[in-house]
Amino acid sequence: MRLRRFGPLLLLAACGDPSDPTTTASAGITSVTAANSTDPAPTGTGTSEPAPTTSAGSLTAASDATSAATTDATATDATDATGASEPASGSEATDSGGDTAASDTTTTTTTTGDGTTGEPCPIGQEGCPCGRGDACAPGLECQAGLCGPPAPPVCGDGEVEGGEACDDGNKIPGDGCENDCTPTPMPASDPCGFASDGVWFEIDYESAFTSTNPDWTYSPTPGWGEAEWAPQGESWPEVWDIYQNVEVDEDQIGTAAIVDGNGALQIMFGIGGLTYDHATVCAQGRSYSVGSSVIFTVQNQLNKCGSTGSMANDWSIHSAGVDLGTCIVGNNEFQGLRVFASGGSGALSLKRLRLTLHGAVY
């Protein structure tokens, strides 16, 4: 009688209540599923209670799939693009040295023009970028966008730089400035025998097309060149064709300006701030005639002071010197040296003319 009364209860305890949806019995293996995915997590110690396992299959009870997918990101490691994990928000990570990442020193890098990164370049230092108007450190210049040592001077660019004694913008030897930017060695005297001292200019019609555009050469005297032969703001020195009838022609001695009795050339110049001892003129050419020599006059139109010279008529270049004494007015910026035929054949074939101020002080 007792066995029959408690038998169903014992069987229920051993096998479980078949009406309870949380347990099922099959082949002696019990599987436990979550009773309710919305049940709150147990609290107490602050840690989750481990899911029960069965002794038969050592199967761990699976937590709710939705809860697993929405696990708080702050409690898990975040994976970066390389696959390495980063510390969760609010936590500290330690490096191989044992210290924390927060205590490491941060290095600032800059992006260069080619997209790479590098250390910042101190402004104005050698090799650092610079722009127009930027100042580089002492002894450096901004060239091609970088601060660096000054470039070596370029002989022939028309600018006297570095150790250059002259730079006439070309590399033609013998024109007053050599192709190594040193003055052309001058003979002790000009073709007329006058000393090559002081300061001077020379006009040459060898490659000219008109009487007003001869080639110019200046004495290689430091501090007195083309600009000093003219007052500020003027384009002098220059040549004027006074009566507009002096032609440049091919003579037996080459290209020359033909100055006959109806024409005159006048060289305009100034010597502000300069004094001298005496002046000379050396003219080269010949008489433009097959019958007789020519007499020519050189005078300063400012004071009508001058002198004369003579040239033969044979087919060769003659040099005739004229001593002007002090006809050139010292420290005066507006003067005109006029040349014209005044006797003999009455026609001068002028190849070159040089005015020298000897003993110049400026």
From TrEMBL:
<feature type="compositionally biased region" description="Low complexity">
    <location>
        <begin position="93"/>
        <end position="118"/>
    </location>
</feature>
<feature type="region of interest" description="Disordered">
    <location>
        <begin position="32"/>
        <end position="121"/>
    </location>
</feature>
<feature type="compositionally biased region" description="Polar residues">
    <location>
        <begin position="32"/>
        <end position="52"/>
    </location>
</feature>
<keyword id="KW-0677">Repeat</keyword>
<dbReference type="InterPro" id="IPR011936">
    <property type="entry name" value="Myxo_disulph_rpt"/>
</dbReference>
<feature type="compositionally biased region" description="Low complexity">
    <location>
        <begin position="53"/>
        <end position="85"/>
    </location>
</feature>
<keyword id="KW-1015">Disulfide bond</keyword>
<protein>
    <submittedName>
        <fullName>DUF4215 domain-containing protein</fullName>
    </submittedName>
</protein>
<keyword id="KW-0732">Signal</keyword>
<dbReference type="Pfam" id="PF13948">
    <property type="entry name" value="DUF4215"/>
</dbReference>
